[in-house]
Amino acid sequence: MNEHTIQEGNRIIAEFWGYKLQPADTGWRYFFRGYVEHYYIENCNHPVYKNRTHRTLLKNMRFDIDWSWLMPVVEMIERMGYSLDNSATVRFNPLDNYDTSKIEYVCDISDNKKELVVDSFFSYPEKETKILATWFAVVQFIKWHNNKTK
User: Fold this and answer.
1) Which parts of the chain register pLDDT below 50?
2) Whole-prediction pTM value?
3) What residue numbers bound the domain in which 30 lies?
4) Which helix (H) or strand (E) holds 73?
5) Do the Cβ atoms of 44 and 54 come closer than 8 Å?
6) What pLDDT, on the 0 to 100 scale, is given for residue 8?
7) Whether the Cβ atoms of residue 8 and residue 15 lie closer than 8 Å to each other
8) Helices 67-79 and 3-17: angle between axes, nearest 10 degrees
9) CA 58 to CA 15: how far, in whole Å?
10) What region, left, alpha or beta, does residue 95 occupy, with left being phi > 0 and alpha being psi -120 to 50 degrees?
11) Is 120 exposed, middle or buried, given 0-12, 13-18 or 19+ CB atoms closer than 10 A?
12) In a 10 Å sphere around its CB, with 0-12 CB exposed, 13-18 middle and 19+ buried, how is residue 55 labelled?
C-alpha cells in the first residue's frame, strides 16, 4: 500500500470521526496565526486529547499504525449497530519449509442481522497487518456507509 492510499484512508476516517479541514491561512492571516492546512476536532474523545481541540496534519494521523487512534473509530462503528470480526490464519507451505511468516489477516464488518457489509483481507509477511486489515475494513465501511446515507 502506498503513502497516498494510506493518507486518503486516514482522511476518510478522520472526517467520519468528526475532524474538519482548516485550510491554510493566506496573506495577513498567516502572519498572525500561521496555520498550514490541517485537520482539527473539538471535544475530541480520543484518550490522549480528551475534551480538547486537537489539531494535526493529515500526514501525522496514525489510524493505520496505532490502535489508540483506530479503536475509538471501531467503537463508534460498533455503537452504530455493526460488529467487527478479526481473524488470522497461518498458511503452512511444505515448499517453504513450513515457513510460519505467511499470516493472512481478515477483518469483516457485519450488521446486527449478521449480514456481511465489508470484508478485508491482507497477506503481507513483511509486517504486522492485523491493524491494516482492520484499518482497511473501516475505510471500506465508511465509504459504504457514506454512499448508503446519501
Assistant:
1) 125-126
2) 0.76
3) 3-148
4) helix 67-79
5) yes
6) 93
7) no
8) 50
9) 11
10) alpha
11) buried
12) middle
The residue among 39, 16, 7 whose CA lies nearest residue 144 is 16
Helix (H) or strand (E) holding 120: strand 116-122
pLDDT of residue 117: 79
- What backbone torsions phi and psi does residue 96 show, to the nearest 5 degrees? -100, 20
Query: pLDDT at position 57, please?
Result: 80
To which H or E segment does residue 77 belong?
Answer: helix 67-79
20-24: which pairs have CB atoms within 8 A and are 24 or more residues apart?
A: 22/55
> For residue 113, which phi and psi values (nearest 5 degrees)?
-95, 10
DSSP string, 27-45: THHHHHT-PPSEEEESS--
- Domains identified in the chain, total number: 1
Q: Rounded distance, CA 134 to CA 112, Å?
A: 18
The most distant pair of C-alpha atoms in the chain lies apart, rounded to whole Å, by 67
C-alpha cell at 29: 492571516
